[in-house]
Design brief:
- With about 270 residues, the protein is α/β, with parallel strands linked by helices.
- The protein has two domains: about 1-100, NAD(P)-binding Rossmann-like Domain (Rossmann fold); about 105-230 and about 240-265, Dihydrodipicolinate Reductase, domain 2 (2-Layer Sandwich), CATH 3.30.360.
- The protein has seven helices and 13 strands.
- α1 links the parallel β1 (about 1-5) and β2.
- The longest helix is centred in the middle third of the chain and has 19 residues, at about 140-160.
- It starts with a strand and ends with a helix.
- The model has no long low-confidence stretch (mean pLDDT about 95).
- The chain binds nicotinamide-adenine-dinucleotide (NAD).
- Nicotinamide-adenine-dinucleotide binds near residues 27 and 28.
Length: about 270
C-alpha cells in the first residue's frame, strides 16, 4: 500500500514506524529527511494519506487534499484547532472522501473494555504529562485534554447518554480541571496537567455496585476486571483506516472539546 505521511515530526515518525512493509512517501517542508517539501510535489492521489502536522495546519492541509482529489485521509487529533474550521471541513468534505480522525485512545483495549461497564455513576480520569512535550500552537485542552474528553464522549455514548453540564474548576497554562454531569446523572472529574514529575494516565469508573480502576503503571490490568489483552492502539486505528471503518462520533468529540475550550479560555481571564 502507498502511504503518504504529511508532517514528519514526533507523531509522523511513530506512524512511519507502524507502516513497515508499505511504500512510504513523506512530505515536510521543514524536515530535510522528508522525501518532498510540498503536497503539490506528489503526482498521485492514490494511497492512504496521514496528516500528522501541528493542529493549526490541519484545516488548510485537509482543504488542499480535498482539492487535490485524495480519497483516504487520516487526520490526527484534534481535527482542527478551531471548531468552526472542523465544521467547515465536514461541510466541504466530498462524499467519496473517507476522513479518519485519530482519537487514538478509543482503540485502546482497556478503554474498549471499560466501555462495556454497565450502570456507570461517576467517571474519574487523570492525564498527566511531565512538561517535555508542550506544543507551541494549541492550548492544553486542545492538545492533551482532548484524549480524556474523547474517552468521556465514548463512555457516555456507551451509556446512551449525553453531556448536560461542564465546568472548569481550575485553569492555568499547564493544568486544567474539568467536571460536570450527564443528562442521566453520570458525574465526571478530569484532571489534565503538564506539570507532573511522571507521565501517567488513569481512568476509574464508579458503577452501581463496583469500581473499575486502570492506570498506565499497570497498562494491561483493570482493578475489578483483571488482565486485558495487550494491543497497540495506533496499529488498531491504522487497521480501521485501511479498512475504511470509521468511529461514529468525531463531531461529538469536537463539540465537547469546543465547550471545554471556551470555558477554559474564559476561566483563564
Ligand atoms: N494521538 C496521539 O497520541 C498524538 C500524540 C502526539 C501528537 N499527536 C498529534 O500529531 C500532530 C503532530 O504533533 P507532533 O507532536 O508530531 O508535532 P511535531 O511538531 O513534532 O511534528 C509536526 C511536523 O509537521 C511538520 N509540518 C509543519 N507544517 C507542515 C506542513 N504545512 N506540511 C507538512 N509538514 C508540516 C513540521 O515540520 C514537523 O516536522 C498533532 O495534531 C498532535 O496533536 C497525536
Amino acid at each position: 500500500m502507498k502511504c503518504i505521511i504529511v508532517g514528519l515530526g514526533y507523531f509522523g515518525r511513530i506512524i512511519r514506524s507502524k507502516l513497515e512493509g508499505h511504500e512510504i512517501i513523506t512530505v515536510d517542508p521543514y524536515n530535510a529527511e522528508a522525501d518532498h517539501k510540498s503536497i503539490s510535489d506528489i503526482d498521485t492521489i492514490d494511497g492512504k494519506w496521514f496528516v500528522t502536522t501541528p493542529a493549526t495546519t490541519h484545516y488548510s492541509i485537509l482543504l488542499e487534499l480535498f482539492e487535490k482529489g485524495v480519497k483516504d485521509i487520516w487526520v490526527e487529533k484534534p481535527i482542527c484547532d478551531k471548531f468552526e474550521d472542523t465544521l467547515d471541513i465536514f461541510s466541504k468534505k466530498p462524499d467519496d472522501v473517507f476522513l479518519y480522525c485519530d482519537f487514538t485512545w478509543l482503540q485502546h483495549s482497556v478503554i474498549k473494555r471499560l466501555g462495556n461497564c454497565q450502570e456507570v455513576k461517576h467517571v474519574e480520569m487523570k492525564w498527566l504529562n511531565d512538561g517535555s512535550m508542550i506544543p507551541g500552537d494549541v492550548n492544553i485542552v486542545t492538545d492533551l485534554a482532548v484524549h480524556p474528553i474523547s474517552i468521556l464522549v465514548f463512555f457516555l455514548i456507551k451509556s446512551r447518554d449525553v453531556l448536560d453540564d461542564i465546568g472548569i474548576t481550575y485553569a492555568s497554562a499547564k493544568s486544567v480541571l474539568i467536571n460536570g454531569r450527564s443528562r442521566k446523572g453520570i458525574t465526571f472529574n478530569i484532571e489534565v496537567s503538564n506539570t507532573s514529575m511522571k507521565k501517567n494516565r488513569s481512568v476509574s469508573l464508579y458503577c452501581k455496585d463496583e469500581v473499575f480502576r486502570w492506570s498506565s503503571d499497570n497498562a494491561c490490568f483493570i482493578e475489578g476486571i483483571g488482565n486485558v489483552e495487550k494491543s497497540d492502539a495506533i496499529e488498531a486505528n491504522i487497521t480501521n483506516f485501511f479498512d475504511r471503518n470509521a468511529i461514529g462520533y468525531p463531531l461529538d468529540i469536537a463539540r465537547t472539546l469546543n465547550d471545554c475550550d471556551c470555558l477554559y479560555n474564559a476561566s483563564l481571564h
